[in-house]
Specification:
By secondary structure, this protein is of the alpha+beta class. It has eleven helices and 17 strands. It comes from Caldimonas mangrovi.
């Protein structure tokens, strides 16, 4: 991909004079060519940093063969420089499909096709396979963020692309996109928040705050697992050995096989995680009679005391094992270690019964075709009203005895 105004080189594309204040715009086909300390400094200063947008994480996705052009994720990391210094950046992909995004636009693509128009390729600013809300437009200040967004539009126009999309953005990104006329879309996830101002002392105190029927159901779930003779161990950082990672990957692959699908992430990706970002991973392993039968992997943000449910798998079926591995064990660990939040990932209204509450997440969309843009805008207005009503209705079904103090 290149701009009509760009001069392409082997490593990157340079866009000069396309943004105000003398920014130099570059497209990098490999994040390894982007200054890692500069990228991570922008991330650290962002409104909502997550480990998933770190230079090491993104580089591992590509170096491992997980997110590549052959898989439909053609990388074009976008950077803005001023006087030789990195002032804004974002992960940008040319997408040949909509898999691995978790903000679903298949209906939009179908509408384009029915009218004889090409929806793909499209431009996407997101973290592959990772529906975790956070900063996407890394910028030193608001003008740089606006310039970054304008550059994305310019690239899409110069290459006659149907659209550009920002997924799971933070409030600063959302405001910038809305101000510049992008269409805003809302979805719902389910997150757990520790009690404030006095965090839960232990899992039992958390259970005590739930309504009786919800507390009873969780205790029943846990009893099923205990009666089956299942025991759990929790490993973090360097304590996760390569055989542990091998076992996890076997379980991870089993989940995809059960759905007749193929894992997005390669074993090499997790090897790179264990080498480069070990402090960001928590692995639960379930055993019965000394035999490992299941595992779940949780990502950690130790600095901000947040945890993110990511992957799980089992080699045999045990009633309620999924709930124990993916919710109860992680929540108990978060409470024990003073974590403030556990994000349960995309979708899943059943998570409310486990103490995870509905949270709206946001994306922003720019469509080049004015007629389709108007049609999608009307659709999003109706959809947004429905999402808000859904969130309001869920809030009335809170599993907690009372909300004050949470």
């Amino acid at each position: 991909m290149t701009s009509k105004k760009a001069e392409a080189t082997n490593a990157e594309e340079n866009h000069k004079g396309e943004a105000p204040d003398d920014y130099v715009i570059r497209l990098h086909h490999d994040v390894a060519s982007v200054d890692a300390p500069g990228w991570d400094a922008l991330l650290a200063a962002s409104l909502r940093p997550t480990p998933f947008l770190s230079h090491a994480y993104l580089d591992a996705l590509h170096a491992s063969g997980s997110a590549t052009e052959d898989a439909g994720w053609a990388p074009h990391f976008l950077t803005l420089e001023r006087t030789g210094k990195l002032v804004a950046a974002c992960p940008l992909y040319l997408k040949a499909h909509s898999y691995g995004e978790y903000v679903f636009d298949w209906a939009w693509a179908d509408a384009y096709e029915r009218h004889g128009l090409a929806y793909y390729p499209k431009l996407l600013a997101a973290v592959p396979f990772t529906p975790v809300p956070g900063s996407r437009l890394l910028a030193r200040d608001a003008p740089a963020r606006r310039a970054l967004l304008a550059a994305i539009e310019s690239i899409a126009r110069d290459n006659d692309l149907s659209s550009a999309h920002l997924l799971f953005v933070d409030e600063a990104d959302l405001e910038a996109a809305g101000t510049q006329g992008w269409l805003i879309r809302s979805t719902v996830q389910f997150h757990w928040r520790n009690r404030t101002p006095l965090p839960y002392r232990d899992f039992d105190e958390f259970l005590a705050g739930l309504q009786r029927d919800k507390r009873k159901k969780i205790l029943q779930d846990r009893r099923h697992v205990a009666d089956a003779g299942i025991e759990f161990s929790a490993l973090t950082g360097a304590d996760i050995t390569q055989p542990d990672w091998d076992f996890f990957y076997e379980c991870y692959g089993a989940t995809y096989r059960a759905h007749h699908s193929t894992p997005y992430l390669t074993r090499r990706f997790f090897a790179l995680m264990s080498e480069r970002m070990p402090e960001h991973w928590l692995l639960f392993i379930a055993t019965r009679g000394g035999r490992r039968i299941a595992s779940s992997l949780v990502a950690l943000d130790p600095r901000h005391r947040r945890a993110f449910g990511r992957y799980w798998g089992a080699l045999e079926w045990v009633p309620c094992l999924h709930f124990e591995a993916c919710y109860y064990q992680p929540l108990a660990w978060c409470i024990e270690h003073g974590y403030e939040a556990f994000e349960g990932g995309a979708q899943g209204e059943h998570k409310m019964a486990r103490g995870l509450m509905p949270v709206q997440t946001w994306s922003a969309h720019w469509l080049s075709h004015p007629v389709f843009s108007d049609a999608v805008a009307r659709f999003l207005e109706r959809e947004g009203q429905g999402v808000q009503a859904y969130v309001d209705e869920l809030a009335e079904r809170s599993p907690f005895k009372s909300e004050p103090g949470r």
